[in-house]
## 1
Amino acid sequence: MPNASPAPVTTPVTAVPTARAAVRALSNSKIREVANAGMGRAGVLPFWFGEPDQVTPEFIRQAAIDSINAGETFYNQNFGIPPLREALADYTTRLHGATTPDSIAVTSSGMSALMHVFQALIGPGDRVVAVTPLWPNLIEGPRVLGAEVLRVGLDFDARRGFHLDLDRLLEALTPATRMLIVNSPGNPTGFTLGREEQTAILAHCRRHGIWILADDAYERIVFEGQGAAAPSFLDLAHRDERVVSANTFSKSWLMTGWRLGWVTGPAGLIEDIGKLIEYNTSCAPTFVQRAGVVAVRDGEATTRGFVARLKHARDRLHAQLAGIDGIEAVAPAGAMYAFFRVAGVTDTLALCKRLVAEQGLGLAPGIAFGPESEGFVRWCFAASDANLDEGVARLKRGLAR
Amino acid sequence: MPNASPAPVTTPVTAVPTARAAVRALSNSKIREVANAGMGRAGVLPFWFGEPDQVTPEFIRQAAIDSINAGETFYNQNFGIPPLREALADYTTRLHGATTPDSIAVTSSGMSALMHVFQALIGPGDRVVAVTPLWPNLIEGPRVLGAEVLRVGLDFDARRGFHLDLDRLLEALTPATRMLIVNSPGNPTGFTLGREEQTAILAHCRRHGIWILADDAYERIVFEGQGAAAPSFLDLAHRDERVVSANTFSKSWLMTGWRLGWVTGPAGLIEDIGKLIEYNTSCAPTFVQRAGVVAVRDGEATTRGFVARLKHARDRLHAQLAGIDGIEAVAPAGAMYAFFRVAGVTDTLALCKRLVAEQGLGLAPGIAFGPESEGFVRWCFAASDANLDEGVARLKRGLAR
């Protein structure tokens, strides 16, 4: 039996109860809108979300199970359990140079890592510059904190693919700018910053005291060059300057559903992020973090195997896309997306809705990543050969109509 | 081999890189400060944190293990998986009257539920009123968003314990107030709002369009009265008005370390909170939510057993505290804390540091919950008889020095 019945509302409510205007103005996901258009249709090939199609490896899952069985169901430290901070510091040292655990904070997903950085550094009216097209969360997150986000679009041509006009970016990075957001390798474009570009950007940002936030979710997913990771601002910067990296277990170790990420940055900032973690999620579950420790320590073969599979998929998909009239696709240097232009299409949201409804092909519209990529479509190629081939067949049928 | 060596910093950095001022000004936990004073000392009795001393029941843990084994390691819905939203809607309907899943959003902890409500409703300069002493996170959370939090202190006397001056609260709730925060049963006081007080507060807030945020973490932990839960604003309010409840799996089902919570509120607000979840944590792990489904559906005996154990502990502890000279303790109506005054003590932070260092007794200082509770000490009594008895012996020795 409920405790009581509602009391009559004696005074009319002045307005419909909703969130504040800044929150109402946040975008709804246009990818979700396409997915909704395919709701109820069987056999849809879901290339729309940025998610590998493989289950987390068994040895990583087992670490979580062992922890749950051992009764590790209590609170832990805001910054993450010490073994995970240490494992991440060692991992970062291997990839990017000397890093100590006090430069690391563990968060409840890569998104949570980003939001903590936004909360720590961004206030109302701050000017933030982002290189676009971009995963929309990197634009909307700062807006939750009241920032104004200026977009600097990459250029595209069918020979070079996406590339950066460095002068235009540096011009946008005025002394009044609080933060630059870069995602390299990038979602959705696969664009990957070169070492020379990074060096120039870092020097400029140092000069003006601008924070660099690098979303390094895809740093391991690179197809060119001999390094184990993409060129990173962490390679160039000292740990005690205005460079922050947000990262995630989702891609490198096939752990999207675990919601585990981390921030690497100046120890003084990490200290304050620890306070913010207390007021956001307090900590990530110990058993999730135990899985994270095993992934970081023993997961190198998982990462390399995943990257090899992606490279194969990238090449297979792009070879086929090259044969379709009206499609301009350039194989990306990193990340896990084909992001290609479809000639004559000015409304990719409508196109993607039609493709899912009529052909059962789930792709993400370019407009979801910003106005500058209208006309493009994103295809996550973390998928099997059979699914990729069938997807291409459906795309051909869909475009022929 | 790291990718490269740090580039020399050619221009001096203008200031030490730290978070923005509003974040730097957030309080550090004074409970943590006491805990640090006991670092390295063996055999400390840890009554300082608000955490049950029991592992999560096996049947709940097994649901998570089954899900991990089944490969549920992928993204899921922002609002939570449908079976959990449905189970929570049924649960809320049983306790508080008709509630549908579209009034529920699942979050990555009770703290995360609160932070999402703050983000949705609070902006810079907003006036927030909180009934204190209070868990500091409920004060600091709104401050992250730039709010000014006005404290309305409960009164205390050794006969009635903590009680509310209703007129003073209503006076503080001016038409310009954005939100009232109430935690009932409350941490640290155990203060529990009565039905008449709730009715008056709701009528007043309706009149002025003030949001009520009820932190209902302890709603099941009540020792008086015949209801299964404390009187709740959800009993009185319609689901489509300005009343929001934040809740957690931590206490009712012994799941602190799982980081799972939920928000109940108007469907229009929940819609916007879904967008915010995308930009904060995106979703809670599916396997954690599967454990949550089993807890909500099959965990009633767990909750009732835990409450019975707490009632026994409350009575045992307070019987002994009553025999100590200079301690004023009133057994609380709910929650899981003794919050008692120690005569002549004006610096409980120093007292608690001394108690842990000299006696191995871990208590939380009243000042951690606000200036109005300086002179008080919090003791979490979710503990065994033996530990409670030994704790009292240590307290006596510590106060005698």
## 2
Amino acid sequence: MNILEQIRKELPWLEDKVSYDLTRGKPSSDQLDISQQYLEKINQPYHIDGVDIRNYGLPEGLPSAKALGADIMGTSAEETLALDNSSLSLMQQILSCGYFLGFDKAKLDQNSKFICPVPGYDRHFKLLENFGFEMISIPFADDGPDLQALAQVLEQEANVAGIVCVPRHSNPTGHSYSDANVSEMFNLISQKKDNFMILWDNAYACHDLKPTIKQSSANEIAKNCGVWDNLFHLSSTSKITLAGSGIAFLSMSSSNINQFIDYRNSVTPGPNKMNQGLHVEYFKTISIEEQMNKLKEVILPKFELTEQYLSELQQEGLCEYKSPTGGYFFTFDSTSGKAKEIIDHCDQLGLKLLPLGSCHPNGKDSANRTIRIAPTFPDLQSLERCMQIFSKVVKYLN
Amino acid sequence: MNILEQIRKELPWLEDKVSYDLTRGKPSSDQLDISQQYLEKINQPYHIDGVDIRNYGLPEGLPSAKALGADIMGTSAEETLALDNSSLSLMQQILSCGYFLGFDKAKLDQNSKFICPVPGYDRHFKLLENFGFEMISIPFADDGPDLQALAQVLEQEANVAGIVCVPRHSNPTGHSYSDANVSEMFNLISQKKDNFMILWDNAYACHDLKPTIKQSSANEIAKNCGVWDNLFHLSSTSKITLAGSGIAFLSMSSSNINQFIDYRNSVTPGPNKMNQGLHVEYFKTISIEEQMNKLKEVILPKFELTEQYLSELQQEGLCEYKSPTGGYFFTFDSTSGKAKEIIDHCDQLGLKLLPLGSCHPNGKDSANRTIRIAPTFPDLQSLERCMQIFSKVVKYLN
């Protein structure tokens, strides 16, 4: 009997033809129900902050939405823009502005190379790849990107012009960078401060599920290290309120803000301020902290369940993983280098995982090790089944 | 007494220090009140078309929002995407995809040149300029772009790879292209169909104020002329429901759709479907036609008032203008080539107009002729004052 037949025999519910999916970091409907419950209690405002939000104007976003972003990111409202519904789109616009016009301290061209801590976020890598930028992988240390590796790349490679980071509950490894790590990183980067773009995707700024280290504001550290004009600090409410219908924020120096807003005037007549107003009203009804606590009640049991299975596999020597204290993901590293085989077998049993290489630049995971697990979308019972399939496949393949 | 003193004496209300603004094509609050009135009657849906619109997914947009876009643009829903809140942002993404990846039949590079019928839309020109594309102006004929001029450019210039058009109630001239014009244009372009991008910004697709020629679907004409894979047909509800909080639509061939959605996956996790759902509900309450009729009641008197003044100036030989049958703009052409002087004098009297050259590529109106007048935002009384200032300045300067 082959492995698939064996597992099908052991898990007779696989006959149900239900599909199981651990690919994307999507909120579950239980999470979205929480937001809907509060949204239903509020009325859409049409004027706010003395502004007619039904009309064009205010390219930097509503003042009270800027303040909301500043709250989430630990920045000041003056240094924070409240814009459209996707921080990834803002990243595309930042890169475009850097490429075609150049920021004062971040000018990109076809030879620019970006440093990418890996494993990382597939859409970041695809975005950089689509600009034609070469990506140079560096590994992680315990408290953030491996800075020896970073120093070496900065020293040895020509045309290194940027780095992309998820500094808290990193996608997908769960790393939260220590202040010491960030300070040293920014100090290293300061050698290149005449031309360097730090894409700082703070997507999980307030998404703790367990006690997590405190982090100083990246803006303040950047100012202290002399790289404030190099920092492009992003976040959003996508995984706070509703996914795809939130507000994306961007915090940076005032000269970068001026240039970016000027560039944006040729790209959009401005953000959706109706949605910004709705969010401002929303967080008058429930604080960000209360909202995140409610979401934690839904997500934490899924993380605990996932970890039970991974911890068992780790004890058997079949994987390495880092226990995340928040965010949306686990990273499974196959110690025997069988990630592709695991993904393929799971697929044949009806469990979808991202393809091999999704967490690596250009889709290349040459060690055949890394699988991202996104446990938030399925309900607990489905997640248990997903992890049963996954765990059995890993065990049988080893 | 100089001109300014003379006008201040004749218009004593200029002392009021009220500012007058005819720069941007913004809806008035009266228009927005119409939309608000209907929005207040409907409830935000959370599920629609069998989709949980609170979550990520459906990168091509909600089926019923695609149908709404198809209705507005005269296209089919299968060939139409419902996306974010700005068709200009979509244009930036189309150009980026064409530049960095290339569509099958529209591959751009740093040497690509775009044909621009002038006068045209300042944000289009700035967008193209920011990519570094050279722009080649062609004039208008009565029923659309001057096709002799177009033919000449296509024949004589190397690397011509695109054109940008506003085919109905063109911004700012008000031209509505005849079917004959579009067919001949597309036939001319078909010589270059292996590499050509037609940016077709149908922003005023249903914004008639007076009887306007019927237009066949540009998609159908493109198919007949063999340039279907070259057409990127855009529209939005920005000037139908709320400005800045609408839905932008994009209609094109299925191979372009596939490639663009794939590209968009690195740029955004998808459009704001909550807003799409809201719009779908909105147009169950009032039809697009009824909505546009209500808006017309507000806008048409402003157009008639503006035209009174322009018609008088024209009769005195001081300007040329084309009477628009819809859209948002008038184009004033100074017969004596004094556009800059008019703009400057108006500015000193408190009336803001766009700077000279705004309707021309790279801001260059070498004939010093063109001023765009956007009469929708002020109320009727303010608009009358704007036109009094404008008219007196024109007369005294001639």
